């Protein structure tokens, strides 16, 4: 059974600081997603990582994927209050073009304080 | 263009009642997924449709849960004889093709009292 673990589960950051969220998963996959969820809202796609060594950046967020280590990271640079939300990684265990069945991590609740 | 829509957004049911949750996927999207998100948890897969065919229902927690997509577009998730443990947000997602990126709807928050 695929397990996806995120840490930390809760992160309180000061504005302007840097930090990294980690996503470890237990079985081979070469497709990983990062989502953002605001309270009471649905999931907003942030990044799709499709291969080993993939790195994507958008604004203050940068995501990377190491399929050999089964690890993805979401790095936050110079945090701002607007980044406060819950962040989920999700692993796609589809093979050969069969349907994706996402397995989500437990989420990291990020709170950026002044 | 329009995204995935779900209705109702909120549903309160008394224990034992049946409920039906609707999902309108993005037009033209072949694949449709249902997920259940308990409070403070990540979403968990329930079931998957490709067009009208339900190809995976391995995540449905009991035989009280039933999903359909008769014409390959709108889907309905039905829960019979609701229990308190069914209280959760039910998310629908669609993707253009089988292994494509999934786009999520706003969810239906179900509260069973």
Short summary:
In chain A, about 0% of the residues lie in helices and about 55% in strands.
Polypeptide structure, described:
The complex is a heterodimer of chains A (114) and B (113). Helix content of chain A is 0%, strand content 54%. In chain A, strand 7 (61-66) and strand 8 (71-76) form a beta hairpin. Chain A has strands spanning 4-7, 10-14, 19-25, 32-37, 43-49, 55-58, 61-66, 71-76, 85-92, 102-104, 108-113. In chain B, 0% of the residues lie in helices and 49% in strands. The interface between A and B is medium-sized, with 24 and 25 residues.
List the helices and strands and how they pair.
The complex is a heterodimer of chains A (114) and B (113).
Chain A: E1 4-7, E2 10-14, E3 19-25, E4 32-37, E5 43-49, E6 55-58, E7 61-66, E8 71-76, E9 85-92, E10 102-104, E11 108-113
Parallel strand pairs in A: 2-11
Antiparallel strand pairs in A: 1-3, 3-8, 4-5, 4-9, 6-7, 7-8, 9-10, 9-11
Chain B: E1 5-7, E2 10-13, E3 19-24, E4 31-37, E5 44-50, E6 53-56, E7 65-68, E8 75-79, E9 88-95, E10 103-104, E11 108-112
């Amino acid at each position: 059974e695929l397990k996806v673990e995120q840490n930390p589960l809760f992160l309180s950051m000061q504005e302007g600081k840097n930090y990294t969220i980690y996503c470890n998963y237990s079985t081979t996959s070469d497709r990983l997603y990062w989502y953002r969820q605001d309270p009471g809202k649905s999931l907003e796609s942030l990044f799709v990582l499709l291969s080993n060594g993939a790195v994507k950046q958008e604004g203050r967020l940068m995501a990377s994927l190491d399929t050999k280590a089964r690890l993805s990271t979401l790095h936050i640079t110079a945090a701002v209050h607007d980044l406060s939300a819950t962040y989920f990684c999700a692993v796609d265990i589809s093979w050969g073009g069969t349907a994706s069945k996402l397995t989500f991590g437990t989420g990291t609740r990020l709170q950026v304080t002044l | 263009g329009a995204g995935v829509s779900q209705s109702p957004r909120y549903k309160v049911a008394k224990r034992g009642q049946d409920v039906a949750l609707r999902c309108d996927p993005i037009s033209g999207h072949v694949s449709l997924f249902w997920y259940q998100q308990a409070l403070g948890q990540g979403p968990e897969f329930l079931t998957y449709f490709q067009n009208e065919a339900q190809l995976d229902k391995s995540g449905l927690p009991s035989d009280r849960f039933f999903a359909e997509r008769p014409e390959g577009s709108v889907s309905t998730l039905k829960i019979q004889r609701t229990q308190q443990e069914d209280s959760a947000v039910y998310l629908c997602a669609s993707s253009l093709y089988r292994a494509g990126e999934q786009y999520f709807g706003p969810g239906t928050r179900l509260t069973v009292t």
